[in-house]
């Protein structure tokens, strides 16, 4: 395994370390900072540091995606409330996949042949086994190995 890379990826993606400020979010989405603050007041977007009053707002990748998607829907005629609800519903499958992958991700190793093998941790139905995944012909293949 490559534990350094494992913890780096988990920290960046799972802990919400990829962040941007309100000005960058405004530029990326075409939504004014004033409008973004209104969306925040309504509870549609939430800055990562909302519990730190007086500090500049910073947004996670999840909120960037949500704000961009809401902006696109508003341009097609949705109301703000309907756009937020639609985006939340559309993001549910992606959030599930995100948690399945990043909550399970333990790291990876590179096999002698260069194949990347992803460690997905203990196999829940049988805690004596570890679950691994790899791509074979661009398709995922899962492997169980006895726990070390």
Automatic annotation (TrEMBL):
Q: Which molecular-function annotation in GO is an example for this chain?
A: DNA binding
InterPro entries for the chain: DNA-bd_dom_put_sf, MerR-type_HTH_dom
Gene3D superfamilies on file: 1.10.1660.10
Q: What is this protein called?
A: HTH merR-type domain-containing protein
Domain HTH merR-type, by residue range, is 19-89
Q: Which GO terms describe its biological process?
A: regulation of DNA-templated transcription
Per the UniProt record, the lineage of the source organism begins with: Bacteria, Bacillati, Bacillota, Bacilli, Lactobacillales
Q: Which domain of life is it from?
A: Bacteria
UniProt xrefs under Pfam families: MerR_1
What organism is recorded for this protein?
Lactiplantibacillus fabifermentans DSM 21115
The record ties this protein, via SMART domains, to: HTH_MERR
């Amino acid at each position: 395994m490559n534990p350094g890379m494992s913890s780096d990826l988990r920290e960046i993606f799972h802990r919400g370390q990829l962040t941007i400020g309100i000005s960058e979010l405004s530029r990326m989405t075409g939504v004014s900072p004033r409008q973004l603050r209104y969306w925040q007041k309504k509870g549609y977007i939430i800055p990562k540091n909302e519990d730190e009053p007086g500090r500049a707002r910073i947004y996670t990748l999840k909120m960037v995606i949500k704000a961009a998607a809401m902006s696109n829907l508003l341009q097609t005629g949705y109301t703000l409330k309907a756009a937020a609800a639609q985006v939340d519903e559309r993001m549910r499958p992606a959030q599930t996949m995100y948690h399945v992958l990043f909550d399970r991700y333990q790291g990876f190793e590179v096999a002698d042949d260069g194949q990347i093998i992803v460690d997905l941790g203990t196999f829940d139905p049988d805690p004596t086994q570890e679950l691994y995944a790899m791509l074979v012909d661009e398709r995922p293949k899962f492997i169980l190995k006895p726990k070390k």
